[in-house]
Amino acid sequence: MSTYLIKNAKVLGGAAQDVLISDGRIAEIAETGHGLEPADAVQIIDAEGHILLPGLVDLHTHLREPGREDAETVETGTRAAALGGYTAVHAMANTDPVADTAGVVEQVWRLGQEAGRCDVHPVGAVTVGLNGERLAELGAMHDSAANVKVFSDDGKCVHDAVIMRRALEYVKAFDGVVAQHAQEPRLTEGAQMNEGTVSGVLGLRGWPAVAEEAIIARDVLLTAHVGSRLHVCHVSTAGSVEIIRWAKSKGWDVTAEVTPHHLLLTDELVRSYDPVYKVNPPLRTAADVAALREGLADGTIDAVATDHAPHPSEDKDCEWAVAAMGMLGLETALGIVQQTMVDTGLMDWAGVADRMSARPARIGRLDGHGRPIAVGEPANLVLVDPAARRTVEPSELASRSANTPYAGMELPGRVVATFLRGVPTVIDGKLA
Questions:
Q1: E-strand spans in 47-156?
Q2: Is the pTM for the entire model greater than 0.85?
Q3: Longest dimension (CA), the chain
Q4: 307, 315, 354, 385: which one is catalytic?
Q5: Which of 14, 99, 190, 319 could be joined to 93 by an S-S link, Cβ 3.0–4.6 Å?
Q6: Does the structure show a pLDDT above 70 at 39?
């Protein structure tokens, strides 16, 4: 295993330091100019002006394999993850077959091991086939080689309160967490976009904020009742932030995530009728975006999760009503967070490390990820040039799909290097 000396890096955005990586771990750290001199076998990375962060952790990634390899594979998805600065991702269960058995989650886990670009942690389905009728093999998936700790029917809501209660009770046995896709199905039948002024003008059936907020309110109460852990996926409304803030004030074990696109984009973009902006939950209003940014800044929202949702062109290059919901996110997430949170002064780089690495790793109960940048810790790291600018070109993304809403947009920041246990997966902005 090679040894690397990262020189002049601003660790978590602080003072410049030299960081020595050896045998998969951080071997030494010293302030620049105070003691770390390269040995002959050391490979040197000049990181002047760059930010060194712990490797990013995504709680919400769709890798599509098995079943939709035309959209993404574990190999292509983890390439995109590495280029985005991620060292661990959670692969959602809505594959074909659904990841509702030990066999399927082990298959996804082994594909991640073979790809080697980042750690892949399968998310197990809460219910069989995502049908919301009976619990899946939660215990067997946890006991499998994949060691599943996060369970979600993402793409669908666990809408039955009795089933949700049973799931919350079951995962307590092994410190698991239920990650809820909060969407009351009866309130969103046929919905195409956020319910509001724009939906009225366009004549598209609206998706009301209360459809999300009602489920979150119910579930935080259920979580408190059974003393379990709840994680709320892709929070998108100001009301949802307030409910989660209230639940946390009660001391309940509730966490939440927000996507990069909900931190930046609004439902005004739907006026274009471009299906690249069709997503679940839908893009909301500017007031919602402001509330989400505030919630992320003050810690009410624990994590930024990409909800990376690749789709082949035929599922997006069509009329709005029949287009698939979802957009890419892995390679652009850090740039969006820099633009919306860091460059606006709402959050510093230490805060980014907390929301994109430390807290997601803690929620997913991952060992070795989201750790402090300190001597002896695993060298899961990402080096970022915050001064760089890049224009998003869909054809240059590593994903098998191209459904990015940021095509042609200039984003700040560039991932210079990503290290997975001391092994570079990205060097000089390119796959190693």
A1: 51-54, 56-61, 86-91, 119-122, 150-151
A2: yes
A3: 68
A4: 307
A5: 99
A6: no
